[in-house]
Amino acid sequence: MGKINVLSFAVANLIAAGEVVDRPASVIKELLENAVDAGATTITVEIRNGGVTYMSVADNGCGIAREDVPTAFLRHATSKVRTADDLISISTLGFRGEALASVAAVARVELLTATETDEAATRYIIEGGVEQACEDAARPYGTTIIVRDLFYNVPARSKFLKKDVGEGNAVATALDRLALSHPEISVRFVRDGREELLTPGNGDLKSTIFAVMGKDFTEGLLPVDYTLGGVSIKGYICKPTYSRANRTMQHFYINGRYVHTKTAVVALEQAYKGSIMVGRFPTCVLMITLPLETVDANVHPAKMEVRFVQEKPVFDAVYYAVKSALQAGNRLPNTPVKVTDKPQPVERPKITGEQLYFRTETPTTTVPSRPLQSVSQTAKDDITVSVPVISAFAKKPLFDDDEAVFAAPKMVLHDDADKHAVELQTVSKSETVMQTEAAEQPTANVVVSVQPEEAPVRLVGEAFNTYIFAEQGGTLYCIDKHAAHERIIYNQLMQNSEPQVQMLLAPVPVALQKDEFAALVNAQQDLMAAGFEIEDFGDSTLLVRSVPMLLTGCDIAAALQEIAGGLLSGKQEITTTKQEWIYHSTACRAAVKAGDRSTPAELLELAKRVLSDEAVRYCPHGRPVCITWSQADLEKQFGRI
Questions:
Q1: Dihedrals φ, ψ of 565, to 5°?
Q2: 98, 75 in Cβ contact below 8 A?
Q3: Share of the chain above pLDDT 90, in %
């Protein structure tokens, strides 16, 4: 007997449905796209229990003729594609003819529809892919599709659904995306009897963004309207100061279809390079329009990805559109705008050989220079000078001849009593001369022992307001102060069972995207354990009543957005629990930042903590905290040994 069997019609439909329908949000997405393709100007969506037990999508589109209703629920039945040539230039959101058949295979579906010429509407019921009834009904022209008991006949699939809150937020996200792509359509969303979204449908994209994203998001927008090489870019981007800690609010639409496109994401972020801080990401709602034959939308089961014939024109158009919008946003009022058909090349700064060295001006008040030999041995031992670190792999010699002079950057020397500037002016093989500002007392060296039996830690200096150089026992240490401080705070949070909490005088409302809101609500107990007291304020907004003491004075909204972004992207998987990721984000926010100015005492204390604690070797991100060079390593690089 043969082992290869032909699947039954019912089983084949269930398998096919798994590619299109995996949760209530995917059902809503398919039904919304059908409503848009039908020419609707108003769409109303209602769900209950996250959409698992009840979903309804009603529109005022063209409707379906009665003779076409049973056919519409067959696989590969569609009114949008007739020949293979139609696939080359797809202008509709739906085209495969699988949506209704897939939904009907795993749910109980009721259809009410009428065209403008019908005397009576049609009521059609189908359950598990089997027709139950087709009869007259009453309804204005348009279509209403009601879906009940999703996966009622596939219990193995239903157990993989998330909680009602999570599934409901996924549905809300699908509506947000469609509403933004078609501002000319009024979209209404009712969730468990409460209206959560209503867009004006007046064709104004900014009004729609306000209805979907809220006031805070809309305030920081810059308009974009640009065309290059047949690719049109319209929409809005955020001002640099309104950047976020994640990419969840980057929305790209290709010919009216919401898609994930790395090409546009990279172009967007490249255009913002140098305008926003590292680790922050721009937000946008951008409509990209290009010839239909240059893009293929039939490469992903959920049609969330597209393929371009050429990616460079799309990249260039997005990049220059965003760049010009940023420049226009920075332009002073009443400044004339120069319009050009082609982007002007950006003039790169010229770098000359003289700029390779940082030369310092001669101080106005100095003590006459004296040879080092005239300084007492005690004073010489007490002097600490921050010296620039030279790459161990540099091939060019420091001096071209015996009398060459190297002009080093101005170095600052600190002690406990006063701050004295020591400038290294000239260094030669024949003589080394050092100038210092007037000081009545010898400069005291800052030396603190980690433990009495260990070698003392000596602060050498700091580079770029980021890296601490310290010396201990014949070893030179380079410490990333942000990574080190972050790890120290993280370890403290993990060790303290009772976090120190700061109650806020006035609760702070934090507006979030719907999936961010759901992620934080689901992690509410973990947030409470970390010191965050939050409550639902409605409309995807949290009310923050307390924060960890370490975050006092920090941007609370940005901290919660960062935590939510990590929870959504799965970054908490690098740790054991969600609470550890929350501690991770809290430590990152509370730690001293790269580029912040620190006092010598703070730098020395941080270096001492790092060198005395074996647990401070990697930051919570996994980056190293400290790198080392032994004296022998340095001498070998300079050819001394």
A1: -60, -40
A2: yes
A3: 33
